[in-house]
Write a structure and sequence with these properties.
By secondary structure, this protein is mainly β. The protein has one domain: Immunoglobulin-like (Sandwich). The strands form two sheets. It has a five-stranded antiparallel sheet, with no helix packed on it. Strands 6-3-8 form a three-stranded antiparallel sheet. Strand 4 and strand 5 form a beta hairpin.
Length: 185
């Protein structure tokens, strides 16, 4: 006895018509922006990121340049002009967050310095009075500033730094550091 199997295909003529249930098009558009922006701190035509207040004579309360202006500037990759086009497409405000709580860069008076008695603080505030969320001194409890996307996309943020509590200083040098995180959505 032999077993065999066969598969047969039967094609019947179709009497059904094709009905379009959905007809449409999808259009996709976008804007290409630079995704890399570098940050520089400019002070006295230098982008070294160092602000030097000079010498202070405690006995005469003289000699220090009490107010220093500086700018945080953002540049797109290989650009010589400030600006960060990625901000213009964000859905929210741009944030500049100062200080690192883990290493104690800020306290209730401003930027913590070390040396010269450890009492000197640097009071930093924004000079962009109508463009920023606050012009109060940046402290541990007030360390984040907000800007509109349009203003931030220009890439220039102005600040004022003042050495304060010099009366608490002892002879010597003092220094402090402050980190900055720029974020947007």
């Amino acid at each position: 006895m032999t077993l065999s199997s066969a598969i047969m295909f039967y094609v019947a003529p179709s009497f059904a018509s094709v009905i379009d249930l959905f007809v449409g098009e999808t259009h996709v558009s976008g804007v290409v922006v630079s995704s890399i922006c570098s940050v520089e701190v400019e002070h006295n035509a230098s982008n070294s990121g160092v602000i030097n207040f000079g010498e202070h004579n405690k006995a005469t309360q003289s000699g220090i340049n009490s107010e220093q202006l500086f700018w945080v500037k953002l540049y797109e990759n290989q650009s010589t002009s400030p600006g960060c086009s990625a901000f213009a497409l964000g859905s929210n405000r741009v944030s500049l967050k100062f200080g690192d709580r883990i290493v104690g860069q800020l306290d209730g008076l401003g930027v913590v310095t070390h040396g010269a008695g450890d009492g000197v603080r640097i009071a930093i505030s924004s000079t962009d009075s109508e463009k920023v969320s606050s012009t109060n001194v940046i402290t541990a409890n007030h360390s984040e500033l907000f800007y509109s996307q349009i203003f931030a996309s220009k890439g220039v943020f102005g600040f004022r730094a003042n050495a304060v509590h010099l009366e608490l200083a002892t002879p010597g040098t003092y220094s402090g550091a402050l980190s900055l995180t720029v974020s947007y959505q």
